[in-house]
Specification:
The complex is a heterodimer of chains A (about 250) and B (about 220).
Chain A (H helix, E strand, L loop, with lengths): L2 E7 L8 E7 L8 H14 L22 E2 L2 E2 L22 E4 L8 E3 L2 E2 L2 H8 L21 H11 L6 H5 L6 H12 L8 H14 L10 H5 L7 H15 L3
Helix pairs in contact in A: 2-6, 3-5, 5-6, 5-8, 6-8
Chain B lengths: L1 H6 L1 H26 L6 H13 L2 H4 L3 H31 L14 H4 L1 H20 L12 H8 L3 H28 L5 H30 L7
Helix pairs in contact in B: 2-5, 2-9, 2-10, 7-9, 9-10
Classes of the chains: A alpha+beta (about 250), B mainly alpha (about 220).
């Protein structure tokens, strides 16, 4: 199959970018979106052009490295799917596909489709950890965790930090990401000592980095490749407000 | 604590949720009061006097009305200040927009909160000049509520303005009620569907309640006779 692409090309962080049209041939329905970009890049290299830069790593949907806006939807049209797990059979060859990088002030474009997402690392540093005594690892069953609590924590812990929530949010907010971390650690007994301070500190870091505020439009959950639920944001709000009440 | 809260995006949303709740309570009471128009001239005009006489020994005649106006004004100012600041922050957070941008989640109410709020705010200004101050009312006599209302809704364009504003208010409440509970950290997955349905029911009830009066006048169900 032959596809027409309109890909964002930008040679550096401070240079002006634009959408450039390409056609790619010999695309099979079973190829992933990234494999389709690989085919394009091989041709561009043969023609002496610079390949389209994009982030990728595991290509199994678990690392969070890949992720582009495909026709204006983060990770493309399939729900709960990363770009690397998205197959070309979901695309109509008659329609050009627009490929853009994540757009947010805290995510500056490095090159083409690659953005710097280290702002999310700054949010994690602000509180995405628990305090644990060093030394021998405790027995796994030393701290009982009720099954529903473990399920809630695991659901939130599935976040791979890809940044799709920020890209999709009309406010450019990283709320779903931060809320996933706050929920993951905040519901478990191990995360209780820092629970409220963690929520307040991570939110402050997020605000200071220039992310927008959450207006609960739900665009984030809709594109999240791991289906992190919107309820995590309620939990973050709850913990932040509780922290304020307690003067933290 | 208040300063720290106001400085954060979650704090601003909490302020919007609480002030929105105050305004919602007022809107419900206002809508219920409007329905007295159907009980006749004495009922609605008497209701206006009742509101002014209520607690008059303590607050003076009309004192309660001014207390309510003060609380509403403060709520509106806080609600709008937070909304404007958050909207400007959102704009700064996405300086470059996308070439194509379909709506994935597709909640019309959620996407129109800001402009819907502006429409409601502009309407409130007109509404106060019309039926509170009486300046823009065709009849415009203080205390003659029934006559003012009937004079207003003889005109299709006044009914249209009210319709646009009340429908905008309905959409605003549809997302606002649901969102406010989450902003205050009260939304759980278990209750999500119930809260969404409740928000829809309340919004529709308020919209229909407010629109019943202008359309009743327009179609002659309520008149001067």
């Amino acid at each position: 199959m032959r596809y027409t692409l309109r890909v964002w090309r930008q040679s550096g962080p401070s240079s002006r970018g634009q959408l450039v049209e390409y056609t790619v041939d010999d695309i099979s329905a079973d190829m992933s979106f990234l494999e389709m970009l690989d085919v394009l890049n091989e041709r561009l290299l043969l023609e002496g052009e610079s390949p389209v830069a994009f982030d990728h790593d595991c290509r199994e949907g678990i690392c969070g490295a890949c992720g582009v806006m495909i026709d204006g939807v983060a990770h493309g049209p399939e729900r709960a799917t990363t770009t690397c797990q998205l197959h070309m059979r979901h695309f109509d060859p008659a329609k050009p596909i627009v490929v853009e990088p994540w757009r947010a002030a805290p995510f500056p474009v490095v090159r083409d489709l690659v953005v710097d997402r280290s702002a999310l690392d700054r949010v994690i540093e602000a509180g995405g950890y628990i305090s644990a005594p060093t030394g021998a690892a405790p027995d796994a069953h030393a701290v009982p965790v009720p099954k529903p609590v473990a399920d809630t924590a695991f659901e939130a812990a599935a976040c791979i930090g890809c940044g799709a929530c920020v890209a999709a949010c009309p406010n450019g907010s990283s709320m779903l990401f931060t809320a996933a971390k706050v929920t993951h650690l905040g519901v478990l007994p191990q995360g209780q000592p820092e629970r409220h301070a963690r929520a307040a500190d991570m939110l402050r870091a997020q605000d200071d980095l220039g992310f927008g505020g959450c207006t609960l439009t739900g665009e984030c959950t809709a594109v999240c490749p791991k289906g992190i639920p919107l309820e995590t944001i309620s939990r973050l709000n709850h913990d932040v407000l509780a922290a304020a009440m307690m003067g933290q | 604590m208040a300063g720290r809260l106001w400085a954060s995006t979650v704090g601003k949303k909490a302020v919007m949720a609480v002030t929105g709740g105050v305004l919602l309570l007022y809107v419900v009471a206002h809508m219920a009061g409007n329905l007295k128009v159907f009980a006749g001239r004495e009922s609605i005009d008497g209701y206006g006097v009742f509101l002014r006489e209520f607690l008059a020994p303590v607050l003076g005649y009309g004192g309660l009305v001014w207390v309510i106006r003060a609380v509403l004004s403060l709520s509106v100012i806080l609600h709008m200040t937070a909304a404007v600041q958050l909207a400007r922050r959102a704009k700064r957070a996405r300086p470059v927009s996308y070439a194509t941008r379909p709506k994935v989640n597709g909640s019309y109410a959620a996407r129109t909160m800001r402009w819907g709020g502006v429409i409601v705010a502009l309407f409130v200004v007109y509404h106060v000049l019309d039926l509170t101050a009486g300046v823009l009312n065709p009849h415009g006599v203080e205390g003659e509520i029934h006559a003012n209302v009937v004079a207003d809704f003889q005109h299709w364009y006044v009914v249209l303005a009210y319709t646009v504003a009340v429908v905008a208010l309905g959409f605003h409440l549809r997302h606002g009620i649901w969102s406010a509970l989450r902003s205050l950290g009260l939304g759980s997955a278990r209750r999500a569907a119930a809260v969404k349905t409740a928000a829809l029911v309340v919004s529709v009830a308020i919209t229909v309640g407010f629109l019943s009066v202008p359309y009743a006048v327009l179609f002659g169900l309520v008149s001067d006779q």
